[in-house]
Amino acid sequence: MIVTTALLLIFIERANGFGLSRLPQRAHCLGFSSTSIELPPTHPSPPHTFAGLVEQAIQERYQNVDRVLESWRLLELGYQHKVFVGEDKTSEDNPMLYQECHSYVPGLTIQPFWNVDTVSWAQKLEAKYPIILKEFQKATANREQLQQQGNNIWTGALTEDASSYGVGWKTLVLMDRGVWDPVNVELFPKTAQAVRDAGVPAVEVFFASMEPHSRIQPHSDFTNFVLTSHLALDIPYSGTNQCRLTIADQTREWINGEVMLFDTSLMHDAVNDSDRTRYILMFRVWHPDLTDSERQALQFIYDCLNAPEIVTGATAEERERTELAMLAARTFPAKKNGSQGFGVQSTTSKSSKKKRK
Known about the structure:
By secondary structure, the protein is α+β, with helices and mostly antiparallel strands. It has 2 domains: 5-108 and 297-305, no CATH class; 114-286, B-lactam Antibiotic, Isopenicillin N Synthase, Chain (Jelly Rolls), CATH 2.60.120.330. The chain contains 11 helices and 16 strands. The chain has helices spanning 5-15, 50-61, 66-77, 120-127, 129-139, 143-149, 182-187, 189-198, 292-306, 309-312, 316-329; strands at 25-26, 81-84, 98-103, 113-114, 155-156, 169-176, 179-180, 202-210, 214-219, 222-223, 226-234, 243-247, 250-253, 259-262, 268-272, 278-286. Strands 4, 5, 6, 7, 8, 11, 14 and 16 form an 8-stranded antiparallel beta sheet that branches. The chain has a 4-stranded mixed beta sheet with strand order 1-2-3-10.
């Protein structure tokens, strides 16, 4: 993620904060807004630290982003958010009925699955399903060629904190933390264009595969300000309940061509009981409760983590140059006239492949 654990470790390291743990608290029901949860007191970060420089820049640039500032300060404290989301105390021993976050924005609705019937970008994506599927099947037909042409093709969960995903879960990335991968976008141009045209509020976009007879163990993605969405691409025996996803105490199956939207800060797991590989197009999207200013402030934090010189550069010119480079990296890759290449360079080269969750 990615937005999840690996990034959180960078957050904590650069913010110079750790060590505060919390006992599980209790939310009264799913669909609960977490404004009533008691949080530890926070204070402004020291001004000459990386955390302090980021905080100062956020305050100068954005208005009404107190929740983002509190989230940043909680992370610096090492706050470990864990809250029970069941209906009553009799189910408190069910480990699936908890929200766990290291990166936590207060006051966001907790809900396992969200209704996509009124989500316009989800409807637009479903309408493009035949085009996306056809392109995916064509591009992945020759696996060896795809490996040679692409960047980080079918990378597994290599980090220790992502071990719950198992060896059967692999990804092919189109966007990471708001930055498009121009190499892979060129291999899947219709898919990338469909995502952009649909207006998906994406932080990450990637294909994910799950091998036959495999299971993703219960876990949290540890971030509550992004939700996860799947467009089911190629589901073995779709509609027979062999490929399932459980969020908290709710289980649904993937159906070809349909979009699901759910909260992976809640404990969740997945199963492929079939004898074929399952393929989805996966998104991390901003939580709908966030304001535009809050989304921009959170994206600014990601940019600073990708390129610390945005706030640590020795001169104003260096800081501005670094920020403009990050903005260019987040611009949708457009082909140059008369060229097969893309006009925006990726911040990640093939020689520095990422370990992904």
